[in-house]
């Protein structure tokens, strides 16, 4: 409340976007000075930002539309692989580095379908077109025949598994089980320098802020209200004259594109992509990030992704073997104790003393 | 506009070998309030499901306005033709506010078609009609059972439907709420609108209905005024008498 007695209420999402943009500006400003972050930390921040974008993509479809995908790793990998193709082709043109997998296979040159990938806009366009086609076709067939709920989740999981088996083959010209690595140049600049690491992290943070702002605008619009209506009772909405098939298809493709974007940001920062990003476990993990943060809340998805991955990063040094147990424990906790993830915790503290009526009116971003 | 709003013609719906509707025919005119009564499992909800496009019949057709066969259309196309239906189990969007419901009901499409003031007027009118003005910003999930029933009625009448179907609108309501619902249904009656009400509460039916159709095992057992229904031996036997 300000002194006029008006409630000046800024949604948490606005705070978060501001925070992310400030962090990006700060990182960019401090680059090269003695206060600059270590390369390790800057890189970790950039990767976390890419994961947060991935979490938002799933939250959009699961939290706001009620469609659980356990195969979002597919679109993440698609973006990642096409980015890697650009990086390898571009690096080859500038430095003459021949990718490992070509040498393994004894191939003299890139297969014809690599043509054009040295040109970034082409790689980007290819990623957008392929993601839209694959998600559009799959979504159309599934939603058209009204496959939903757990059946849809299982089919998406099968899809990502099939894609993994395909990419493990060595004769496809996409790197096989070793994947693609050895990227040396990005947009003409050498990779692995502090400057490049910072630039990638800053870019990832800015993309994260943009995706957050865009998705927030979407879910608060009239279209967003229709998304929630579809989630809550699709038949009810259809019998009021709305073709929910179109709505679901649009959001599903958009979600796939955001996941693809996350993959494109992730690969240059981690320096490698291989078929293991297509493993069913990774796709399951994305759902865990969102569930822990609280699905149906964009802020929650970001916090969930950051929290779970920060713990995972740290454990991968301290005690890598206990990670699966921690992950399982988190799932049990979320399912049994906090079905809305951390959002439940937040409500316990902030809202309980004011009575139950505040509870819903404080949910903030779920409603305009 | 034809005189007959809905012409149900030889409708058969099967679930496995069970016939939920069995060669059912009936006609509902514009301007009337028609009650459909009958024991549980008689096929009342199934009939509304066929009319609103949720269930496809095995045989028969449903003509709307004398010309459009609804049995081949999607739920959304049927709704856009001017038919709306309230479900037996109150069906509202838990995560949306009361006014968002009315807005969705009043203005069909992904982008708003009505201009903002016209939509506001319409929302105000409908909220007034269903008595939810004081709750316009509450989430549907917080409403009482009776308020949810009214919200759903408000949502389906916001578009000014030509055919309004209400499946058990007073189930679980208090006497006072039932009274108000009866007044509401009578107020919605118009010469260019047909209202179909499925209900078990006979006093309520008596207050609202111009004509009554009694369904039994997927077929029409009787059709006429409520007074005649009460006097019919067969109806008393299978339904009222128990
Ligand atoms: N989807 C379905 N699958 C199988 N049986 C159904 C289905 N829907 C309704 N039925 C059966 O059809 C009969 C008529 O149901 P319904 O139309 O809901 O009755 P009413 O609304 O008159 O009580 C009931 O015996 C019910 O069990
Ligand atoms: Mg029924």
- Quaternary organisation: heterodimer
The main pleated sheet of chain B reads as:
6 strands, mixed
- The third-level CATH topology of chain B is Rossmann fold
CATH architecture of chain A: Orthogonal Bundle
User: What small ligands are held by the chains?
Assistant: adenosine-5'-diphosphate, magnesium ion
- How is the biggest beta sheet of chain A arranged? 2 strands, antiparallel
Sum this structure up briefly:
Chain A is mostly helical and 368 residues long. Chain A is built from 15 helices and four strands. Chain A has one domain: ABC transporter involved in vitamin B12 uptake, BtuC, CATH 1.10.3470.
Keywords:
heterodimer, A: mainly alpha, ABC transporter involved in vitamin B12 uptake, BtuC, 15 helices, 4 strands, globular, disordered N terminus, disordered C terminus, B: Rossmann fold, 6-stranded mixed β-sheet, binds adenosine-5'-diphosphate, binds magnesium ion
């Amino acid at each position: 409340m300000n002194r006029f007695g008006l409630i000046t209420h800024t949604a948490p999402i606005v705070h978060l976007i501001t925070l992310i943009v400030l962090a990006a500006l700060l990182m960019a400003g401090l680059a090269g000075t003695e206060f600059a972050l270590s390369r390790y930390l800057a890189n970790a921040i950039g990767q976390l930002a890419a994961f947060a974008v991935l979490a938002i993509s799933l939250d959009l479809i699961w939290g706001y539309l009620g469609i659980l995908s356990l195969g979002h790793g597919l679109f993440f990998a698609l973006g990642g692989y096409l980015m890697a193709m650009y990086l390898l082709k571009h690096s080859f043109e500038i430095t003459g580095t021949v990718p490992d997998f070509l040498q393994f296979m004894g191939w003299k040159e890139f297969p014809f379908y690599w043509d054009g990938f040295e040109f970034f806009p082409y790689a980007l366009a290819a990623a957008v077109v392929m993601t839209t086609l694959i998600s559009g076709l799959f979504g159309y067939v599934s939603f058209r025949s009204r496959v939903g709920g757990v059946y849809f989740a299982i089919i998406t999981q099968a899809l990502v598994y099939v894609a993994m088996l395909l990419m493990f083959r060595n004769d496809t010209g996409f790197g096989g089980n070793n994947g693609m690595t050895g990227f040396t140049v990005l947009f003409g600049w050498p990779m692995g320098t502090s400057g490049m690491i910072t630039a990638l992290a800053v870019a990832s943070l800015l993309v994260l802020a943009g995706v957050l702002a865009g998705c927030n605008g979407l879910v608060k619009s009239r279209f967003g209200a229709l998304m929630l209506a579809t989630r809550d009772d699709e038949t009810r909405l259809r019998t009021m004259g709305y073709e929910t098939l179109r709505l679901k298809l649009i959001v599903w493709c958009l979600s796939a594109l955001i996941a693809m974007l996350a993959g494109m940001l992730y690969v240059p920062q981690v320096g490698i992509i291989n078929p293991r990003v297509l493993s069913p476990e990774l796709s399951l993990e994305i759902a865990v990030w969102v569930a822990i943060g609280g699905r149906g809340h964009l802020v929650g998805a970001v916090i969930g992704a950051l929290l779970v991955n920060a713990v995972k990063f740290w454990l991968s040094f301290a005690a890598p073997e206990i990670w699966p147990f921690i992950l399982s424990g988190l799932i049990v906790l979320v399912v049994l104790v906090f079905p809305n993830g951390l959002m439940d915790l937040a409500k316990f503290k902030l809202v309980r003393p004011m009575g139950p009526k505040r509870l819903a009116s404080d949910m903030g971003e779920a409603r305009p | 506009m034809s005189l007959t709003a809905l012409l149900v013609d030889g409708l058969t719906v099967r679930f496995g070998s069970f016939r939920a509707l069995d060669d059912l025919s009936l006609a509902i005119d514009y301007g009337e309030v028609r009650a459909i009564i009958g024991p549980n499992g008689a096929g009342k909800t199934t009939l509304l499901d066929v009319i609103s496009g949720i269930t496809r019949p095995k045989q028969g057709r449903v003509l709307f306005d004398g010309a459009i066969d609804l049995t081949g259309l999607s739920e959304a196309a049927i709704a856009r033709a001017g038919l709306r239906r309230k479900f037996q189990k109150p069906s509202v969007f838990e995560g949306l506010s009361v006014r968002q419901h009315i807005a969705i009901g009043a203005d069909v499409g992904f982008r708003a078609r009505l201009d903002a003031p016209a939509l506001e007027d319409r929302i105000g009118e409908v909220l007034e009609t269903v008595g939810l003005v004081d709750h316009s910003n509450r989430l549907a999930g917080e409403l009482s059972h009776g308020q949810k029933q009214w919200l759903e009625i408000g949502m389906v009448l916001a578009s000014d439907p030509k055919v309004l179907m209400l499946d058990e609108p007073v189930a679980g309501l208090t006497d006072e709420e039932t009274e108000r619902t009866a007044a509401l249904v009578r107020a919605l009656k118009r010469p260019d609108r047909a209202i179909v009400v499925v209900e078990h509460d006979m006093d309520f039916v008596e207050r609202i209905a111009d004509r009554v159709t009694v369904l039994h095992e997927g077929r029409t057992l009787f059709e006429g005024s409520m007074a005649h229904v009460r006097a019919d031996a067969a109806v008393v036997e299978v339904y009222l008498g128990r």
